[in-house]
Amino acid sequence: MVRAYIVSTGMAVPDRVLTNHDLEKIVDTSDAWIRERTGMAERHVSDENTAASDLALPASRDALRAAGISPDDLDAILVATISGDYVFPATACVLQHKLGASHAMAFDLSAACTGYIYGLSVAQAYIESGRYKNILLVGVDMLTKVVDWTDRNTCVLFGDGAGATVIQPRERGGVLDTVLGSDGSAAELLYQPCGGTRVPISHEAIDRKKHFLYMNGREIYKYAVREMVQSCHEVLKRCGKTIEDVRLIIPHQANNRILEAVAQRLGVSMDRLFINIEKYANTSAATVPIALHEALQQGRLHEGDLALLVSFGGGLTWGASLVQF
Ligand code: ACO
Q: Which pLDDT does position 1 carry in this prediction?
């Protein structure tokens, strides 16, 4: 059977680093609070001239180079984002043009922090059906552009970044299976109220700060642990594997305490999870592909190893993929 294989990865973050101590000068917070409650120490923040496609581009070029293919070889470009260059058109189309990928179709998908896993399942379906052979899948977000920098509840939590992967058919390894879920009844636990058709942009909406990201972190926390653990169990069961078969868990990086709770419920030690939240904070759809890139660079995964990718985010959405390298 032909499977979707992640042949290469790339990543990019903005140069500018904002530490917890820098945040102490912006809002009423402390390095100790942020570290203890989240595990974050610093995050990368883009400047006013940098949009999502500007980060997606270098990450994509790195992944294409590592795969040994040119933009012209691409059949499809999928970009998972909730903070693209524009409301429309898709950032994937902007990226297609910047890369010069003249034969690729391109579209965005919106599943917040679970965007990369949702995108992986789409790539998996295209590859398994034989429809496409060379897919560029990018997770990119710049939530620092939509947070309220006077709100300590949210502005300390996010960073900007992009992670890119090239996905091709292989007869050994690859994505063994993916499970996905959603619950739109809790959509307003994490959302950007203004800018869509529910609350179009207006002076009044902006005066009421409706253009900023809103999050009920405490409520999301409860869902996150439960659904991430459940997704892991479900995908392992579908593949006839146990958690002991998994070399490395690559989770969404929203909060270290969520990851500790997930590890505890899965019955694994923390060193079985790849964690880089300290350096980048929550880069939304980019966390999983950036973590995967760094795990591969650090030699944490070898040929034949199983990696369990798992995420949770706005929507609400969640999902897990079991991937063999
Ligand atoms: N510095 C200092 N104090 C703060 C800060 C801060 N940056 N932020 C909040 N506080 C205060 C609050 O005001 C509150 O004070 P009060 O008790 O006087 O009211 C107190 O700290 C506790 O607030 P909580 O919200 O209960 O803090 P909690 O321990 O739950 O941590 C956090 C908050 C980090 C947001 C946590 O709930 C969390 O990580 N939730 C999950 C978020 C998540 O998973 N998001 C994923 C999706 S992201 C996506 O899809 C794009």
A: 87
